[in-house]
Amino acid sequence: MYKNLETLEWNLNNKVEFINIISHELRTPLNIILGAQKLLTLNINEEGNKLENKINFIKYLASIQSNSYRLQRIINNFIDITDFELGMSKLNLSNDDIVKVVKNIVKHASFVANRKGINILLATNVKQKIMAFDKEKIERIILNLLSNAIKFSENNKEIDIILLDKKEKIQLLVIDQGIGIPRDKLSNLFDSFVQVDKSLTRNHEGSGTGLSVVKSFVKLHNGSVSVKSKENAGTSFMIELPSNIVPGSRASYLSDEDINIIQKIQIEFSDICEISYEYNN
Predict the structure, then answer these.
(1) pTM for this one?
(2) In angstroms, rounded to a whole number, what is the distance separating the alpha carbons of residues 176 and 191?
(3) 35-69 in b/e burial notation, b at 16+ Cβ within 10 A?
(4) Residues 234-263: pLDDT tens digits?
(5) What digits encode the pLDDT tens for the residues 159-187?
(6) What distance in Å separates the CA atoms of residue 276 and residue 59, rounded to the nearest whole number?
(7) Pairing of strands 224-230, 158-165
(8) Cβ distance 106 to 65 under 8 Å?
(9) Stretches in the chain below the pLDDT threshold 70
(10) Where does residue 234 fall: left (phi above 0), alpha (psi -120 to 50 degrees), or beta otherwise?
């Protein structure tokens, strides 16, 4: 009985902490959006250098857009976690080329990583792998892992993405050279209401929901996710997914969907940096 009470108290404490974190994460971008809106209003009412005003407009609009995406990310993650725990999550499976999806993500995510002097390197043992997966969810999985890798890596480091065809399954590894995760935090890393390190996360921003979403989406695919990490030596996430084919579903051989993937990167990377309009156009 005492053990059950301790477990219940632990869960309640973590949920309270989670609500506090979410409240902070929602309040911060809202304050930035409101501040940018006020500055825009002041610039509209002021006379003076039109070029300077235009530059300010672009800067404030970029801030509004980036923080709106940040809010969207928090809300998306919260809804996805809740849906999964309630058994309401569904997969939209189709037979597609997982290699092309990963390559497309790496191509566009490199734009953000390069701003920190970080190189994303992709290695694969197969040119094409047609298998059944939910493209939207797989993109979210990879972007969440890449976002963390970039966020917790110092400048001028590398991130390795390794995609391996193991015949009946595929392995996807995301390996960074970042600050690492304390050993005693690894067991709870994917829990819905737990953060690895409150001071660490506060320094880098983030609600701590991304890895829980990753675990949920991987489980929906009947896959597994694991992590190895050492403090000050980097972290390695490995995802394994069954490489099944959906009967009656034709392989679509995905075309490049640059506009869609750019917007997804803007959402998932919104707590890393603002992504300029030049990248959006």
Answers:
(1) 0.76
(2) 21
(3) ebeeebeebeeeeeeeeeeeebeebbebbbbbbbb
(4) 999 999 999 999 887 665 555 555 567 887
(5) 999 999 998 999 999 999 988 888 888 87
(6) 9
(7) unpaired
(8) no
(9) 1-27, 42-53, 192-208, 249-259, 273-281
(10) left
